[in-house]
Amino acid sequence: MSNPTVLAVLVSAALGLGVLTVVRRATFQSRVTPPTAANGFPLIGHLFALAKRPSEWERILFEGMDPSVNIVRVFLPGRVLYFTRGTEVARKMFTDSTLNKRPATDDALKQLEIHETGITFNSRIDSWKRNRSTVLLPMHPPKNFQAFKLNLLGLAQNTELLIEGIARPRFIRSLAPRVTVQFTELASVLDQVAASAQPVLVNKMLNLLSMDIIFDVVFSVQNRESQSYLSSLLDPDLPVSEHRFLDMMKGLMDGMTFFLRMPKWGYTWVPSIRSSAKKHRANVNIFIDALQQHIDDKKLEIEGVDFSSTSNQLIDFSTSLLIHPETSKPENLRELQSILRAAIAGGTETSANTMSFMLYELCKNPNVADSIHDEVVRVVQDVTGDGQGDVTSEIVGKLAYLEAAINETHRMYSIASMIGRELEQDHVFDGYTLEAGSSLTVLTQANHMSEKLWDNPQKFDPTRFLDAEKKTEGGPLGLGFAFTPFGYGVRNPGEALAMMEMKVLVANVCRRYKIRLVDPTATVKTRLGLTLQCLDLPIVFEMRV
């Protein structure tokens, strides 16, 4: 097909979709619908507005609106979307059981190999419930368990939930010692880097460390890539460490961003976009193949192990799934992959980027870092009688100021800048009728930085979470729905894992080191894909006296 013909087809399609948009506008004028967002264009709707950075969307879409307006209607070719700010619509969206489908097309999910499987995007109820259902784990460990060198992590006897297993209290309590071991090993090299005053790209170090931890937790694999990176700073002749799976994770996240945001017609008909789609599909397949290899290796590792011993041991997460007959059935392979994929993503992307942003703010606010240090030393002393004792799960539960600082980081740097749901039926919000087949998106970042919802929102102030009054409507932390960093509900398998990892690591960093920016005037660099990512952030570590 010649280029002029292709252009004619695209122009005709755009005109057709534009006419459909106009017709749909007229169709819903008789209903009480939200006001149309500002900055719309004839035929192509709000494409140009949504091409801006999401951090600008509230300003762009609500421009000229009365401050009381919290929801607007947005038109794309052939499609209507709704964007909302404030807490009331967010509360209903997160608590209405009929609003449980993520805004992703079936085709996009097929491209990503997560269609009707797993838990995050799964809209097939029977599959979703199976991933949430109770799994009976073995009451006993295998004979000769130590011969297989399985870590004492994972899930204990009795019952756990498939995807919740990695967030269950028993599992989380077992995680703190493992994270402490990882940090202690890292600190043996980081102390040398601190003595040399060599800058560290903390975003890189923390991404590698998070991947080291999650592979230990999920597969009992010891990578130590974060230590290799620090060693390369001390010896330029050493190769710079690049975690193979970390690169795959970045490729996977880029692929998810592409397919979840790009309409099917774009990567079906536009040659340049089709080329990008091919590359992203390849990255998804590379990740899945590597994940399957780890699953196969774990199967071989536990093959023939007798789980009838009478003593009690703990196991890693992948083993807990593979030894259960329902999960390990061949027909459930995609389910198993999706569960482990969600655990790996939840335990790396969220924690590494949040900790990077937090260390940036601690450099800008050394008094906060000192307060965390003092709290950690005091609580460790009270619990263990030794101010240098390990940061255990019991101690983590008493570090209120540290938790407040992590929450403040989540507020100022929303890893998920927006959270959406698909409307499978008409819904009424704020007196407006929202039509079925559309999507509803809460502008999380806008809420987190709203002057109407927070005092002095531009200031990094952890005490706002210590002094906050609990709300009758509940919500995350009981603070209502002005603060929803992980959304709200049961589709957040990595939240508890990420929080425990961050608390243990930041507590140890602040207790052991002082930190400063290489350039005190530098602003943090970010990249927004599916999540908000921290780019190169050089920080100098100094040993505390």
Which labels suit this protein?
three-stranded antiparallel β-sheet; four-stranded mixed β-sheet; 49% helix; globular; Cytochrome p450; alpha+beta; 545 residues
Description:
The chain is an alpha+beta fold. It has a domain at 127-416 and 485-543: Cytochrome P450 (Cytochrome p450, Orthogonal Bundle). 49% of the residues lie in helices and 9% in strands. It has 20 helices and 13 strands. The chain has helices spanning 3-27, 47-50, 57-61, 88-95, 106-111, 125-132, 169-196, 202-219, 225-234, 244-261, 264-269, 271-302, 317-322, 333-364, 366-384, 393-396, 400-412, 444-448, 463-466, 495-512; strands spanning 71-76, 79-84, 134-136, 159-161, 200-201, 419-422, 427-429, 432-434, 439-442, 513-517, 526-528, 532-534, 538-543. The strands form five sheets. A four-stranded mixed beta sheet has the order 1-2-9-6, with helices on one face. The chain has a three-stranded antiparallel beta sheet with strand order 5-13-10.
Task: Give the CA-CA distance, first to last residue.
Answer: 72 Å
Anisotropy-based shape = globular
* CATH fold-level label of the domain at 127-416 and 485-543: Cytochrome p450
Structural class: alpha+beta
Sheet with most strands: strand arrangement: 1-2-9-6
In DSSP terms (H or I, runs of 4 or more residues), the helix count works out at: 20
Going by CATH, the homologous superfamily of the domain at 127-416 and 485-543 would be Cytochrome P450
